[in-house]
Every structure is written in structure tokens, then in C-alpha cells.
Amino acid sequence: MKSKRRVAAVVVTYNRKNLLIECLESLLNQTFPIDLIIVIDNASTDGTQVYLKERGLLDNPKISYIRLEKNMGGAGGFYEGLKIGYRENFEWLWIMDDDTIPSSNALEELMHANELLKKEDVNPLILGSRVNWIDGDPHPMNLPQIKRRNWNQIFLGLEYGLLPLRSVSFVSVLINSCAIEKYGFPMKKYFIWNDDVEYTGRILKEEIGFLVPRSVVIHKTVKKYSPIEASADRFFFEVRNKIWMILKSDAWTSYEKIRYSVILTKNIIKFLLKNKFSFKSIIVVLRGLVQGFIKSP
Could you tell me whether strands 90-97 and 5-13 are parallel, antiparallel, or unpaired per DSSP bridges? Predict the structure, then answer.
């Protein structure tokens, strides 16, 4: 049987060539070496491919650049990237957006946590980083959901400075290829938002994963925002995809589905209040509700 290569990073990009360069340079300078960086370009229109070539990055043997024919969103991009990494026989796939800037030892800390857990005969399938905004505070878009009801995992995590995960965002998460073997790939039709929560939740319903606070990345979004502060076009995906996740995913228990229903209801109310019940905001919510209930991912 062919032995697995250790780590491939998967970076999904769309029209953020300057941030992408910063991300790639951070990945190339990790204290734990990455075997390959898979860049999935969602049909950028800002000259990303030319810019990478001018900077000499397309000639780097550690970078594999794949340009998609159309923008498939973060969900479609991660689907394609994980598929390639799994096909290329990597043990671990480290995935992130193009505006994610890892600290130099971010991957080393994730892999160190894995080694500590293996000594306890624990094999995590997911390891996540702490995600900060540029001000050093945790980014509200990337707060993990902690597994609060498994005391064995809680006590084990406390022993090593880790937190047991129930779900985590795709902004710096290390996924073992065994998870893909057992649970498949993310739902690419989500386009953006909640694909990461659904996928990691699907895996971590039965498997073990931990947040590694010493592994730190900066998520360089323009603003430190949450879903209710996003544009109307983006909030549509929050509504539709949350409904898909609640009704059509087996990632959650009945209790968790009720909890997500309450969260969605609160977010819709907050979004409408923030937008003063404008015609556009109401239409966006209605579209999300209709498509969430009627269509299928």
C-alpha cells in the first residue's frame, strides 16, 4: 500500500490576490513543513493567476494552482480542494480561506497536539486553530462550538490545554483523510456559509476533534462581523443553508436541531431590525426560507 504524504494545505481564493500572497508566504514559512499547497481559484477576475506568476509562485513545486471555470463559492472550492488532496494520498488536509494568515508555528502546534493525543491512544480526525481578527480578539464569524457533554474529552483536553470540538469553521482546520473516507466531502451546493459547520458537525457527531488555542491564525476580513451584519445577498445563504442543515443533515441530534432553529430565528429578527425591515431585507429572508424548505442541497 502506498504510504501517505503528511500535510497538504488547501486555500480557496476569489479576487483577493494580495491577501492570497500573504497567506501563501505564511504557509511556505511554517515551522512544520507543508508538502503541498493546493490553491483553488474560484474563477477570480482580479488577475490572480497573472499576479501569482509574476511573483514566481506558480513555479514553486510546493504550490499547485487550480483555476475553476466558474465561482463555486467557498463550499465548492473546499469540496474540490479536499477531493484533490484526498486523491493525492495526504494524511492531513489543512484548509483555510485566502484571507487567513497563520502564525509561523500554527501548523506545528496542531501537529504537536496530535502527537500528545496519540500518546493517550486518542486519534483526532479534526484539529482547529484559534481564529483572531486583526485586533487580536476572537473573530465572531469563526467561533467554534465546543462539545460540552463528553466529560472524558473535556478532562483530556484540559490536561493538554485543548477544547473538545462539536463543530468548527473552515478557517484553519486540519482534517484527517480518514474522516473523508468515512464521511465524504462538504456539501458544495451550500456555496458559502454553514458548509463548514455541517461538515465538521457531521464528522464530530461520532468522532473526536479538538481546538488547539496555541495554534493561532488571523482572519483578515475587512470588518469583524457576524452573519447579521453581512450584506443581504450573503444573509440569504445564512437562512437557506441553516434550514438545509437543520432539516436535511444527519449531523445533529434533535436537541441540536432545536438549538439551531432558535439561533436562526434570532438571527433573522436581528437582521430585519438592523435593516429596519426594508423591502430588500424581507425579500432576502423570504427567499432563503422558501429555498431552504423547498430545494435540496
Answer: parallel
